[in-house]
Please model this.
Amino acid sequence: MFLRFLASSHALGLVHQCRWDDAAAEAEEVLAAPLGAPLSRIFALVALALVRARRGEPGAHTLLAEAVTYGHPTDFVRLAPVWEAMAEVAWLDGDDTAAAGIARRGLAAARDGREPWTAGFLARWVDIAGGKREEGDDWASAAQRWTEIGSPYDAALARLGGDVDAMTDALETFSKLGARPAATRARAKLKAAGFRLGVRGPRGATRTNRHGLTAREQDVIGLLREGLTGPQIAGRLHISPKTVARHTEAIFTKLGAHTRAEALRRYEA
Model:
């Protein structure tokens, strides 16, 4: 029983590391064994459901429907990971109301405050699904911490709460991972923010800048003036180095420059 529980837990850890093939294989091995203690199956069911849902494959709802039967409705320790997965699956299906509702019901079971990490996962889905909490939310710090511990999908989810650059980075991550439903949600957020993929028309700060630089490009060139490197700029602005390189290339093109020094001279002229 304990070996299966360990394997089940490991499968869920692999999901967060985005090793989805390995996670699915390990979860399926646990679930193929003769039915034993329900506790040893819960994380395997959740892991396999998340892999399938994130890839846009069928079967997630059936797996979670089984998992939720293995605990009492007030059993936060056993069922919180199931509720979290159910909220994510609802969000991936495009149902924000259901996602936030599931997460809130799960949080209602966390009365004693002894499981802050698990409660945090549920609270995140209240935020992502468009609900409101009293606590503040620092998406950039969250994305950085998820990146540091090797969870790119979770980091991308955090970036969906950021600016257009952050949401674009999130879309890029989802696309690379083959997370089609999440990529669809990211595109919808970008569209709602007035951003058309592949089209960046001049607006706002871009029109008022004499060089035609966007607000983000002005941020980047300001940090270039301070002598920061690309990775340092990425850290300061909480965007990826690749995004910094893209902005730098656009700055050089608009200023007709080929080097950083030349770009700064033309910008300040």
